[in-house]
Design goal:
Blueprint: H1 3-44, E1 49-51, H2 52-58, H3 64-71, E2 77-80, E3 83-87, H4 88-99
Antiparallel strand pairs: 1-3, 2-3
Amino acid sequence: MNERAVSDTAFVESLKSLIDAYFQTKMKSMVLTQQVETAPQSRLALGLALTMDQACEYVGGVSRPSFYSNVLPRVESFRIGRRRFVLRSELDKYIEMSSHGY
């Protein structure tokens, strides 16, 4: 084998390893993105009563201050210890009423 063929082979092998590394990184990134996107939905599917963070996410990802000032006064909530919860059905009613302009 001549010197050029050896350098071409080495170049091809290094290029293959770079492409493999790129696709491995890309696949890991896609898996992490899917996990992040599905995490809130899986948490919301756990129960009928939602924590404040879950309720904020449920009504469209509003901030806690916006939720406390705009949504919470219009829905019934309850406390267990120091934690406040809102029933999902209450939020569904609120969303339905808001979409009709009430």
